[in-house]
C-alpha cells in the first residue's frame, strides 16, 4: 500500500553512533514541501519564494499548494474554498466539551484537546483512501480557527459565534473572535501572516507531526501532537514571550542595558535565534513591514520602537554569532494591533501551521517508515532485583 522509505537509498544519512543532541544537521526524511537557505535568508514553499506568496497568494491557496504540491486552478481553488467554508462549524458536542475546560487554562491546551477530539467524530482511519485524506484536510483547516475563536468566547462566559458564510477565511476568523466584521486591510494582513507561518520544513512541531503520522494513526492525532509541541516557549510559544519582554524593557533607551544584562546572565532574547538561519529570518522582515502597514493605518504600538531598538542593539552583540530576529519577533506586534489577545498568538500560529503539518502528513504516508531512532544508554549496566526488606535504607546505595 505505501512505498517504504527503506527503498530510497540515495543520500541516506550514516550518523553511526555519534550523538547529535537536537538532531542538528541530521536528515531524517526527504521532502519536497519547503526549502530554507539559512545563510541567505531564503525560504520557498514548493519552489515559490515566501515573499511572492505573502504578497499575492491567499492562505487557502497557499495551503492547497503546500498540501497538494501545485497551485490550484481557478476551479480547484473555488471548490477548496467552498469545501472549507462548508466545514467551518464544529459539533455542539465539541463546544460543550470546551465549556467544561477551565477558563484559566491556556488556549493551546484547549486547542490540543479539541483537535484530538475530532478523531472521535471522524474516526475511520482510512488513510489509504484519497477521499478520507481530502476530507480530513478540509475539516482540520476549516475547524481549527472555529475552535480557537470558540474557546476565546467560552472562557469569557459567552457563547461562541457561528461562522459567517459570506466572509472569507481570515475575515471570518477575526469576526468569530471579536463579533465585528474586520476592516479589509486588517483581514488581508492577517491572511498574509497565516501564509508566512504555514510551513517551515522539519521544525519541532512538524517533526512531531511526522513521527505521529509514521505510526499510521489518524490525522487528528497527528495535528494534536503537533499543537502540543508548538506550544513550548522555544518554539511557537516565543511570540507571547516577546511582547512580555518588550513590555519589561519599556522604552527604546533601555534596550542596550536589557540586552547586556540578559547576555551576561545567559538569558535568551525571545524572538531571536534560529537553528536554520544565520541572518534575519525572511518572515521577520515581511512581518515587520506588515506591522508598519498596520501602524500607518490604525496607529502605532509604542512597543514597536522598543523592538526596533532591541534589534539594532542586538546586531552587534548577537549578530556576530548569527543570531537575528526570527518569525516570532514581530508577529506579536501585528497580532496585538489586530486585537488578538496575547495567549492566542500561538493558537493563531497553529491555525496557519496546520497546512504544513498536513502537507507533511501526506508526504509521510507516501513513503512511510515508522520513526524509531536509537540512543546511547548511560545508565547502570546491570543490577539484580532485591526484595524491599533487603534493600539498603539510603536511595541509590
Ligand atoms: N538570545 C541569546 N542567545 C542566544 C539566543 C537568543 N535568543 N539563541 C541562541 N543563543 C545562543 C545560545 O546562548 C548559545 O550560545 P553559546 O554557544 O555561547 O552557549 C548559542 O546561541 C546556540 O544556542 P542554542 O540554544 O544551542 O541554539 P539552537 O539552535 O539549539 O536553538 C532556538 C534555536 C531554540 C530558536 C534558540 O535560538 C532560542 O531559544 N531562541 C529564543 C526562543 C525563540 O525565539 N524561539 C522561537 C524560534 S522560531 C520558531 O520556533 C517558530
Uncertain segments are 1-13
Order of helices and strands: EEEHHHHHHHHHHHHHHHH
Ligand catalogue: acetyl coenzyme *A
Report the radius of gyration as a whole number of Å.
Answer: 23 Å
Helix proportion: 40-55%
Order of strands in the sheet with the most strands? 1-2-3
CATH-assigned fold name of the largest domain = Citrate Synthase, domain 1
Number of structural units classed as domains: 2
Number of helices: 16
How many β-strand stretches?
3
What does the model show?
This protein has 16 helices and 3 strands. The protein has 397 residues and is mainly alpha-helical. The chain folds into 2 domains: 34-231 and 353-366, Orthogonal Bundle (Citrate Synthase, domain 1); 238-337, Cytochrome p450-Terp, domain 2. A 3-stranded antiparallel sheet has the order 1-2-3. A hairpin with a 4-residue loop joins β1 and β2. The longest helix has 26 residues, at 130-155. The chain is globular, with a radius of gyration of 23 Å.
Topology:
Layout: E1 34-37, E2 42-45, E3 48-49, H1 50-56, H2 59-68, H3 74-86, H4 92-99, H5 107-121, H6 130-155, H7 169-178, H8 184-197, H9 204-213, H10 219-230, H11 238-249, H12 255-264, H13 282-298, H14 303-317, H15 327-337, H16 345-366
Antiparallel strand pairs: 1-2, 2-3
Helix pairs in contact: 1-8, 2-16, 3-6, 4-6, 5-6, 5-10, 6-7, 6-16, 7-8, 8-13, 8-15, 8-16, 9-10, 9-16, 10-16, 11-15, 13-15
Bound molecules: acetyl coenzyme *A.
